[in-house]
Amino acid sequence: MVAPALSFTPLPGLPAVRAGDDLAGLIAAALERAGIALAGGDVLAVTQKIVSKTEGRRRALAQVTPSARAQALAAETRKDPRLVELILQESHAIIRTRPDLIIAEHRLGIVLANAGIDRSNLDGGEDEVLLLPEDPDASALRLRRALERASGVDLGVLITDSVGRAWRRGTVGLAIGTAGVAPFCDLRGRRDLGGRPLQVSEIAPADSLAAAAVLVMGEAAEATPVVLIRGASGGGDNMPARAALRPRGEDLFR
Amino acid sequence: MVAPALSFTPLPGLPAVRAGDDLAGLIAAALERAGIALAGGDVLAVTQKIVSKTEGRRRALAQVTPSARAQALAAETRKDPRLVELILQESHAIIRTRPDLIIAEHRLGIVLANAGIDRSNLDGGEDEVLLLPEDPDASALRLRRALERASGVDLGVLITDSVGRAWRRGTVGLAIGTAGVAPFCDLRGRRDLGGRPLQVSEIAPADSLAAAAVLVMGEAAEATPVVLIRGASGGGDNMPARAALRPRGEDLFR
What we know:
The structure is a homodimer.
Chain A: E1 6-10, H1 23-34, E2 43-47, H2 48-54, E3 58-60, H3 68-77, H4 81-89, E4 91-98, E5 101-106, E6 111-113, E7 128-130, H5 136-151, E8 156-163, E9 172-179, E10 185-186, E11 202-203, H6 205-217, E12 226-230
Parallel strand pairs in A: 2-8
Antiparallel strand pairs in A: 1-12, 2-12, 3-7, 4-5, 5-6, 8-9, 10-11
Helix pairs in contact in A: 1-5, 3-4
């Protein structure tokens, strides 16, 4: 029997988190309770939701005053003007709109619906939303360093989010923050079976791992926010996820 | 120790395939040699390259006569006019071009570079290319039925390809054909931790699995064209991958 090359294990027993919590400490404790000893090369995929919550990124809509621009865009898209105000504050540019949908370039450079602002899995009711982490690459690096200290082995960390695609139904996981996992990997110079240079010259390991990790996390009430990935080839050292953003000059779909 | 929820195992020892080969038979034999007994719910991810090869989808560029339209587009994009002719034949529409790049809507509805035509991993030298399978959903269903007969258990099959993204560097795997794995899954009606209806209403399980499977397959000479996925929740019965195409009227990026 051949051993799996790559496996995804959801981490059970992580408690609900609050602003100011030590997320790395909570993850290390949950790993210990689950009897999981981290090994060198392990990667932890962590949903942005719990990173954002520990970093105090909740916002109460009641405290948001929509600008005139937010009110106009809200009328056009039939969205809550206070939510639209936060979308505008979190974005560099609005890329496309239609009723019920605003696709924005987040200030992190990621193109996604509602600038990544989430209304799910908050206990504050209809009035609370959650912004993306301030700097997910920095969050990933902090988690990596703290978990490496706790475990004594080299690790990778992915901060994941769930995003829609331009031409396909359904969301997939994406790595919005990385540390110790390559966001992209240049294969130029490698050869195919026929000895020719590879046609595909860049692959996206971090996003590929995030896709399966987010599937394992699930989206509903029984969701698990942290998944252990074993067998990923890592690499990329501390190359940040923002390195995977397509340079503006190469963008054909803006 | 918690068991992995999801694992990916590359299948060793599959021989190079030729047009007319019985791919299901070759996969079943390789599984047996590797000592892998398929279990109910297992999913086999199979790269489109070997499906296309067994289906006789190689084309010799020397036998292609470029049309005037192909010659004009080739001049504009600095590509081989014979390759551009095949891209046009395989496409419904050209979506974007720039030097060295043609993004097309393949006749299957998938938006991808060069209409999915591949020049890697062919032993015919510079002059041969490989088209996508004629109908990858039908290919997936045939493989599923044949492997279910051989193994006696319920299986899923994904036909994968590797595609670029609009706003991010690096390719990720996509499920261009599915049988027994849901291309998308509607979560509407489910509730989050706070009891609110989920904000994310559709996820894309087949593409999420394909992403990690293609990472495990690799792209270079040592690539393995078949990966066993264990722990996927399956579903979707025989819903085809084409069901995951975003309806034209909802497309904001054409």
